DNA sequence: GAACCTCCATACGCTGGCGTATGGTCGACC
DNA sequence: GGTCGACCATACGCCAGCGTATGGAGGTTC
């Protein structure tokens, strides 16, 4: 018989965590309870381990936060952009991007939580990188719609503020948003307005 | 000689705080450091007093938060609405409202901090009240511009998300916004788009 | 099979903030 | 000018979470 890579005789046989595991858990915690929820001991409990593990992989809490944010900045934007790029029609592309982005923001509150803690240096840095990338991309989409350069950028920015504000509202006062049935129509109209010449 | 109301012989002669003083200090603290910054002992230091004073006026920290939020909900919306109502031209009224609102949001970060903590029950309640009132008012303005009822509400909501998103950006990534010179032009264009038929 | 290295467990001290208890001060009033 | 009540100071116990120290448990290597 071939040798087994990881022990699988005993079912609960010491998972052996990595720094990534901790970073992911931290991201989850941010989504649930904000940056303040990134607390070593509670996380250790959720991961079924102890602080001993954590302080092996990281110097301190701050290093964990930094790692988690870097991971977030890498993943969550490029992923969606490349997904949207598949759609050839530029108008539909905008619509697709916003549909996806808003849906994503509605399901989890990670982004909102991060915006909440923009005072923290590492968060500020991650937000800056991500925001600039996104606004630039949306501006690019608007340029593809035929808007001349400076206006494309302004419209892109406007559209991004709509997204942000929407995410905020969905999180803080969901009752203020149109109900699910009307939502698609609302979004259509909103984007029509934004893309109007 | 007339009698003096408050002692003013000694310069630093025991101010004697009220519950209002504590609530205002709490609001200031929220603006600076979020809800987490509402901490009794640090606030006591800033007010030049001790916890003894606080626990005389309030049952606990939560009661302070509630009082502060109620005060905020009362003041910050109606004040601006009645200020804007002075302007007769409806189009200019919208423009004035947004100019003021954005300026106000840019200077302080109280609103953003509150949105950040929407999970807290008292905050959620205050936000709901304030948001519904505001969206309703903006919708009213759009109705005044000639939009039929359901669309006026949708446009009002859209405009409010723009405001919110803008406030967020101004707080988290100010570098993404147009610089001061171009800002008025940007706002003009944005509102033109929002009010376009 | 012994040394070794990686990873984790446990115990400890420390800090900041909450809430309580109890006594002190100062003006108002009689 | 003593009493009373409103307001505040101080001291205390408590808890959560950070970071450190130190001692294993297991796999790896020779």
TrEMBL record, chains A, B:
Q: Which domain of life is it from?
A: Bacteria
Do the record's keywords include 4Fe-4S?
Answer: no
Where do the HTH tetR-type domain residues begin and end? 16-76
Which Pfam families does the entry mention?
Answer: TetR_N
Q: Which residues bind DNA?
A: 39-58
Protein keywords: DNA-binding
Extract the Gene3D superfamilies matched here: Tetracycline Repressor, domain 2 (1.10.357.10)
Protein's UniProt name: TetR/AcrR family transcriptional regulator
Q: What is the lineage of its organism?
A: Bacteria, Bacillati, Actinomycetota, Actinomycetes, Kitasatosporales
């Amino acid at each position: 018989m071939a040798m087994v890579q990881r022990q699988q005789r005993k079912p609960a046989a010491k998972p052996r965590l990595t720094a990534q595991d901790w970073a992911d858990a931290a991201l989850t915690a941010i989504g649930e309870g904000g940056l303040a929820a990134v607390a070593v001991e509670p996380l250790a409990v959720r991961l079924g381990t102890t602080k001993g593990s954590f302080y092996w992989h990281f110097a301190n809490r701050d290093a964990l936060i930094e790692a988690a944010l870097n991971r977030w900045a890498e993943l969550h934007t490029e992923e969606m952009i490349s997904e949207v790029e598949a759609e050839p029609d530029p108008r539909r592309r905008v619509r697709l991007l916003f549909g996806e982005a808003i849906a994503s923001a509605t399901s989890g509150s990670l982004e909102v939580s991060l915006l909440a803690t923009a005072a923290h240096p590492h968060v500020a840095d991650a937000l800056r990188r991500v925001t600039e990338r996104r606004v630039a991309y949306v501006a690019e989409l608007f340029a593809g719609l035929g808007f001349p350069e400076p206006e494309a950028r302004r419209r892109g920015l406007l559209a991004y503020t709509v997204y942000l504000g929407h995410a905020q509202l969905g999180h803080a006062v969901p009752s203020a948003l149109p109900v699910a049935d009307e939502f698609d129509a609302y979004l259509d109209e909103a984007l029509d307005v934004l893309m109007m010449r």
